[in-house]
Each structure stands twice: as C-alpha cells, then as structure tokens.
Amino acid sequence: MNYIRLRKNNLCVENVSAQKLAKKYRTPFYCYSLAQLKNNYFTFKNAFKSIKPVVCFSVKSNSNIAILKELKKMGSGADVVSIGELLKAKKAGINSQKIVFSGIGKTEDEIRMAIKKRVLLINVESENEVNLINKISKKISKKISIGIRLNPNVTGKTHRKISTGGKNEKFGLSYNDFIVLCEKIKKMKNLNLEGISVHIGSQITNVIPFKKMLSVVNKVINKTKINFRFIDLGGGMGISYSKKEKEINLKKYAKLIQKFMKNKNSKIIFEPGRFIIGNAAILITKIIYIKKSNKKNFIILDAGMNNLMRPALYGAHHQIIPFKKTKKILRGNLEFVGPVCESSDKFSNEKIFTKIKEGDYVGLANVGAYGMSLSSNYNTRPIIAEIMVNGSKDKIIRKRQTLESLVNN
Fold it and tell me: Does 287 share its domain with 222?
C-alpha cells in the first residue's frame, strides 16, 4: 500500500492534499505518512514472524523523536551509533534491552554511556575496542555484554559508498581475526560475549548476498563453537526508488534464515532503517525559476543538497512528482536543480514531464531514510521543518530552524 500517491491526478499524503500542505507550511519541508510508516514496520515484522526477531530500527536513517516514539509504540527497538542517537532513542522511550550500540569508532564517553544506559549489546569492531571496554568494566566492577562484528567479505553489489561487507572496508573483523578475538575474550572475566554481528551494506534488493553472508556466519559459529545468545544480521534491505527497481523479497530472506537457524538456540536481531522509513516521506519543494540555457531547461527548486544530500553524495535517484498531473506535457532536456552553489546540487534529468511553471510545487519521493538525517546548514541555510500526516490531520514534528538561531550560533 502506498499512502503517498496521486489521487485523481492530485498528489496526496494519506487524506491530505499536498497542495494544501505546501500552502500551509513554508517550503521546503519533509512530510511523512504515519500510515505508511506503520504499514512498512508491520510488513517487515510479519515477514519474519516465524523467527520472532528483535527489530532495532536504524536511528541513523532517521532520528526524529516523533518518529522514534511511533516506532516504540509498535514495539521497535533501536540500533544506534553515537551518544546522540542513544539519548534520542531513550528520550523516545525505547527499552534499553532493545537497543544495540554499533559503530567502528566509539569513544570512551560513548562506551560509558552505553554501559550506564544498560543497552542490550555493544557491538565491537576491533580488539582495541574490546580492551577499552574490558578496562572500563574492571574499574566499575560490572560484567558487560558485547557482540563482535564480523566482516564476511560479502558485498551487496550496491553503490560502493554504501557497501560495508567487503574485506577492504573499515568495518568488522575478518574471519581469522574474529576467531582469535573470541579466544582472547574468553579470558576476560568482565566481558560476556553474547553476540555475533554482521552488516554487508545498504539498499540490497537481492537475497543472494544475504545467502552468502549467512553461509560465512554459519562457518564462523561452527568454528568458534560458541552458542551466541544473539545473531545480529544488521539491515540493508532495499526499497524501490523507481519503477525499474524492485524491493527485496523478505519472505525469501526469511526462508533462508529459517534454514540457517536449524540447530541454533539464538535470537535474531535486525537493524532495518530504509525499509521502514524510506518511502514514508516526500520532500515538498517549490519551483523558484525555470531557466533556459544551452538547449536545457533548469528547473530551480527551493530545496537543495543541504536538504537532501543523497543525489550529490551517492548519485541516488529520487522520483520527482508533480502536484497536479495534466495532459499538457513539457518536453526537452529538463534538469531539476537546487539553489546551493555547487554543480553537484542537482536531483534529476527528465525528458518528459507534466507542464509546470514558476511557483508550482513538486515532491521528491522516497526521502524518509538518509534525507533529514544527512541535511546540513551548508550555505548558511536553516534546517527545514518536518511534518507528519495521520489520516486527515497534519502536524509539525520538527520546527524549521530560525535564521536568528542559525546566524547567532
């Protein structure tokens, strides 16, 4: 079910007209559908119901407190990679025993905070990190639960900048290093090795990389002969950003895991982000100018790469949706760009588009994940607002940053 769609040729978010929202709130702004968020979460959970996993939403994909609170109500935990994300998860009311702390560069302060908040697992990524946690645990006379992240040398065959499972990436430990570290941890009285963690990348739409990953994890478990309490399989499940792309088949993935889990007495942890929140938002933006230059029409929007970094950072594509679809067509070399002073501040090239004019509004689709969370004040531009729609109601879930607070800080 898609709750952000054209209805009678008019773009709507659930039961609210996008045109009405654009008139009510200052553009640009992010707009979320609560119904879509719920639909995605329960679709994910139901696909793996036979496994009964601990679902820990990836806070780095979207850290809005209101969204985290809604996910908490649905039963979600959190995967965090910083003190800030941990504190946001706690502020949203998420149970510490549903929080895993990941990340390759945890500082001593972050580790101490994770211990203080009694998170379920601290997933370590190096022997040095293990030594630091052991040192801290001795000082406070506490036994700390940890997991070790494995680098399985398996990639998801996505964009190289969102691939994390290859042997040349900075994440996790190689097969041999993992085995050696497990033996060392056995001798550390203040650490409790409870988990094996793995994450091979993002926006993966084929189950084959996950099948390869599970094979490596199984090999490691058999080699260590450790009955891990938790097997954290990370996230990375992809969504459809265009008609050409298909989202991952979760039921196929679930069958692979069921087979993998035979003869294992462990609890599966998932860390989905994009699959839960990705298609639950649009970026509503206004056309400032249409500039004709060198056989090209530049459609200049008031949203820029400071609001949505993914196209500039990864070359990611986000479908651009007109607020009103008509039979009148605009043809030619159309380039949708932002106002930021960078050549990379562009969103899409189109050959055919519904006829538009200056002052019209459009929506950039599927921006819920790594949209607002990657935004910045570049060019000294305020962080924009976030709006949530629930049925026929809409509300601000994050106010637009004021120019005064931006300029004076």
Answer: no
CATH of the domain at 398: 2.40.37.10
31 assigned to active site: no
Domain containing 302: what range? Answer: 4-32+278-407
DSSP state of 163: B
What is the value of pTM for the model shown? 0.94
End-to-end CA distance of the chain: give it in Å, rounded: 43
The dihedrals phi and psi of 322, each to the nearest 5 degrees, come to -70, 150
Hey, what are 13's tokens? 């978010």
How distant is the alpha carbon of residue 181 from its chain centre? 30
CATH of the domain at 104: 3.20.20.10
pLDDT per residue as tens digits for the range 53-110: 999 999 999 999 999 999 999 999 999 999 999 999 999 999 999 999 999 999 999 9
The DSSP bridge partners found for residue 389 are: 33, 394
Instruction: Please say which residue of 230, 246, 276 terminates a domain.
Output: 276
Phi and psi at residue 313, to the nearest 5°: -80, -45
Q: Which of 31, 56, 182, 341 is catalytic?
A: 341
